[in-house]
Write a structure and sequence with these properties.
elongated, Aminopeptidase, 24% strand, 413 residues, seven-stranded mixed β-sheet, eight-stranded mixed β-sheet, 15 strands, 39% helix
Length: 413
């Protein structure tokens, strides 16, 4: 029986298909389309003998003169090894795009050119890495090229494309696919990282917690504001985080770090009593603790982040660490952010995740995000990047020129 292409497929059917398809990404879900509500969304799929065999969540945006852009986050939910299915699906998708006045179809599959441990890259170590995200890379790249997709390039900057082309992940299972014990995972970190997590922070009053309460999104937003002011950037606000919590009610989790000031003061006084050499440092910290207590209260919020737990039931289950912020006015010497990362990783272990995705980085590995994330012995993924299937060369060319002009005007301002 021939394949049958359908548009506006049933949301529940789509979600069930994506959840049970091996190694799908949270951006391929309808939940993510709900978050990106300033785009229109269409669900399309290909059926064989009445059964859904591949699908895509298309984000659509009007650009000018009723022309549209199609963006399919993390690409198609499809077996790229099935050349005939892929060919038929793309052919039907092009026809649908023309009917919708789309000028381009953009995809960025979560498939990698390379996957390696950071120590192998920077220090020429020989740590074995299971390249689970590099399987069938050649097949995917060749197939997309044969179908007319044009590669967007190999730039390394974190903001060069819609999604960063480089990211860091932490494997949570050994080479036999057995979950790490928490202490085993901790021992894999460099000494100057693991020394500042666990008992070190517990003794000093650092406390970690998690929440699935949507109203706690305001706490994350308050810490993000600290990061915005410190780095002079604009990130996301409370409404965006509430949207994530609302759209992913079973998967989005907020994590927080607080400091019990009274407990820390007690520790400092005892530490000063037991170690004469630490007297000057402890006295300074006591004064600082009293100032912080007066300004922020007895249990100030020092850090917060949001994580989307795996949305797929099969294949590689990866938790995605999204936005994070910290208030560096709250005892930077306690390295609280280190502990918050480890607390999240322990939560991921408790929930049987295969990987934790720390998020995008600059491909140079010299940016501040790369340097911080390298503290946790991650693996670096180089994704294949963006591909465009241009539907109208003229209108797409005109659109790119317009975008370049707008960007130049903004840059000059």
């Amino acid at each position: 029986m021939d394949y049958v292409f359908k548009t506006n497929i049933n949301k529940k059917e789509y979600d069930k298909f994506v959840a049970n398809f091996p190694s799908t990404n949270f951006m391929q879900t309808t939940n993510w389309a709900n978050v990106k509500n300033f785009w229109d969304n269409s669900l399309v799929g290909m059926y064989k003998n009445g059964k859904l065999v591949c699908a895509a969540s298309i984000l659509k945006r009007n650009v000018f003169l009723n022309k549209k852009l199609f963006y399919i986050p993390r690409g198609f939910v499809i077996d790229y090894n099935d050349e005939e299915l892929l060919k038929q699906f793309v052919c039907k998708l092009k026809t649908y795009a023309k009917e919708e006045n789309a000028i381009d179809i953009k995809i960025d599959p979560f498939v990698c050119f390379n996957q390696d441990n950071i120590q192998n890259i920077k220090n020429n170590k020989n740590i074995e890495t299971k390249k689970k995200f590099c399987i069938n890379t050649d097949v995917v790249v060749k197939s997309l090229k044969n179908l007319g997709f044009k590669h967007a390039g190999y730039r390394k900057e974190i903001d060069a494309y819609t999604q960063p082309r480089y990211t860091m992940v932490i494997p949570l299972k050994d080479n036999n696919d057995v979950l790490y014990e928490k202490e085993t995972l901790k021992r894999s970190f460099p000494k100057n990282t693991r020394n500042y997590i666990g008992d070190y922070q517990k003794q000093r009053g650092v406390e970690f917690s998690y929440s699935t309460n949507i109203d706690d999104a305001k706490k994350l937003a308050s810490v993000i504001q600290c990061t915005e002011k410190r780095q002079n950037v604009t990130l996301r606000g409370e409404q965006y985080f509430r949207s994530i919590m609302k759209s992913f009610p079973e998967h989005a989790v907020l994590f927080f770090a607080h400091v019990d000031i009274d407990k820390y003061l007690e520790f400092l006084k005892q530490d000063m009593k037991n170690n004469e050499s630490k007297k000057e440092f402890c006295e300074k910290q006591i004064l600082e603790a009293k100032r912080i207590k007066e300004q922020y209260g007895s249990k100030p919020l020092a850090g917060a982040t949001i994580v989307i737990m795996p949305t797929c039931k099969k294949g590689i289950r990866m938790a995605s660490f999204l936005y994070a912020g910290n208030n560096t006015d709250i005892f930077p010497s306690l390295k609280i952010t280190n502990g918050l990362v480890f607390y999240r990783l322990c939560y991921c272990l408790d929930n049987n995740c295969d990987y934790a995705n720390l998020g995008g980085i600059d491909g140079s590995l010299n940016d501040h995000l790369s340097i911080f994330k390298s503290k946790f012995n991650p693996e670096v993924l180089e994704l294949i990047g963006e591909y465009d299937l241009v539907i109208s060369k003229f209108w797409f060319f005109l659109f790119k020129i317009s975008v370049n002009i707008i960007n130049r005007i903004r840059f000059k301002k």
